[in-house]
């Protein structure tokens, strides 16, 4: 990868757990616990994982809405993890699951989309025409929608307004946190198509957060699989989703019904229980209490899973090593899918 647009190294966000009358700190929720990745200009990296694994915290920490406990975030060569500046606030924008959850429902669409322009000092006279253009860009007719109020819009239209607002300052990077999960399935495809078109036209870079593998499949170039605050697998979309190398990725995928055929129930990998408490993660490999691969290993090998935390390391699955190592797949597991058979 040539110089990445965004580079994240060892990022952590721990939330203190306080208890007792004196509210003393008694522990920490390790929401994000040592995440590293690069994002090239124009590409889409999707972060996928179960609810509570730290996806939103990662997104918010990367864009400076939340302060990291440790680690470094670099954007276009500048370190931003110790405080973001005005240029970063313009160049990096976020699209939320419900764009109106943080906005005033009594503002018109025109004002909602114009607000970032006002904050960044654009003259009022120049705004209206530009906002109308932005509405057209996201597939909304300004004549119908400029003066509309959020409650008059459908879910899909609301998300289009959210995207128009995020585009207003001509950003380079959009962080999309579950952008379609609040929408009906029938509306999702239109929004994902819009995101793809905008990326092609504007050269946008996306960090997409989703718990939904089918959404990820439609837009991502690379995929990071997150479990209890850590990435357990990171690689090209086809590699990770078609030939998962980490048992958690395998289990996550086997719980997703395929479009064409349901997986054979005998071949489905069960993901037992729910994720452990991120304030008290399991020793060694955090996935070990739920891991089907570990169940097949002999005792000595299985003991290693409890004793030693696997690092996210390069995994060449046979064949020639790739010329660009950054495109290679990294996996945090001591073993391989076929081990123990
Ligand atoms: N402000 C906070 N204070 C304390 N704990 C928090 C805070 N925000 C998040 N957490 C905890 O951090 C962990 C990760 O939460 P996060 O919202 O990042 O997960 P997520 O992957 O986005 O989940 P979802 O798919 O449900 O949106 C959870 O255990 C959550 O309860
Ligand atoms: S290190 Fe062990 S417990 Fe962890 S994913 Fe690999 S096989 Fe499973
Ligand atoms: Mg979330």
Task: Describe this structure as you would to a colleague.
It contains twelve helices and twelve strands. It has a domain at 106-169. The protein is α/β, with parallel strands linked by helices. It has helices at residues 55-62, 86-91, 109-119, 124-137, 142-145, 155-167, 185-202, 213-219, 237-242, 247-254, 292-296, 299-307, and strands at residues 6-19, 24-39, 44-48, 70-75, 78-79, 92-95, 173-177, 205-210, 222-227, 230-236, 313-315, 329-331. The chain has an eight-stranded mixed beta sheet with strand order 6-7-8-3-9-10-12-11, with helices on both faces. A hairpin with a 4-residue loop joins strand 1 and strand 2 (24-39). Residues 321-326 have low confidence and may be disordered. Helix 4 crosses helix 6 (155-167). The structure holds adenosine-5'-triphosphate, iron/sulfur cluster (SF4) and magnesium ion. Residues 55-56 line the site of magnesium ion.
């Amino acid at each position: 990868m040539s110089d990445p647009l965004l580079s994240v190294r060892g990022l952590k966000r721990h939330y203190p757990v306080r208890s007792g009358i004196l509210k003393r700190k008694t522990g920490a929720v390790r929401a994000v616990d040592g995440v590293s990745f690069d994002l090239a200009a124009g590409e889409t990296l999707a972060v996928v994982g179960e609810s509570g694994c730290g996806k939103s915290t990662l997104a918010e920490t990367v864009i400076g809405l939340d302060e990291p406990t440790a680690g470094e975030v670099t954007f276009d060569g500048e370190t931003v993890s110790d405080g973001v500046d005005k240029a970063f606030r313009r160049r990096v924008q976020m699209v939320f699951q419900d764009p109106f959850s943080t906005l005033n429902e009594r503002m018109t669409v025109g004002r909602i989309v114009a607000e970032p322009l006002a904050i960044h000092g654009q003259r009022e006279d120049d705004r209206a025409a530009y906002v109308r253009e932005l509405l057209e860009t996201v597939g909304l007719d300004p004549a119908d929608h400029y003066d509309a109020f959020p409650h008059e819009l459908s879910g899909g239209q609301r998300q289009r307004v959210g995207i128009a607002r995020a585009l207003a300052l001509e950003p380079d990077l959009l962080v999309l946190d579950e952008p379609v999960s609040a929408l009906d399935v029938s509306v999702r495809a239109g929004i994902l198509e819009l995101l793809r078109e905008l990326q092609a036209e504007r050269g946008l870079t996306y960090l997409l957060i989703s718990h939904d593998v089918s959404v990820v499949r439609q837009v991502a170039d690379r995929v990071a699989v997150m479990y209890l605050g850590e990435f357990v697998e990171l690689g090209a979309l086809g590699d990770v989703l078609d030939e998962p190398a980490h048992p958690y990725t395998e289990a996550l995928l086997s719980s997703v019904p395929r479009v064409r055929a349901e997986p054979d129930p005998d071949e489905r990998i069960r993901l037992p229980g729910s994720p452990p408490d991120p304030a008290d993660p399991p020793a060694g490999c955090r996935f070990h209490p739920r891991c089907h691969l570990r169940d097949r290993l002999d005792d000595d090998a299985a003991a290693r899973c409890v004793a030693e935390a696997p690092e996210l390391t390069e995994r060449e699955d046979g064949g020639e090593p790739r010329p660009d190592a950054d495109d290679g797949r990294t996996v945090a597991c001591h073993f391989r899918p076929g081990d123990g058979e």
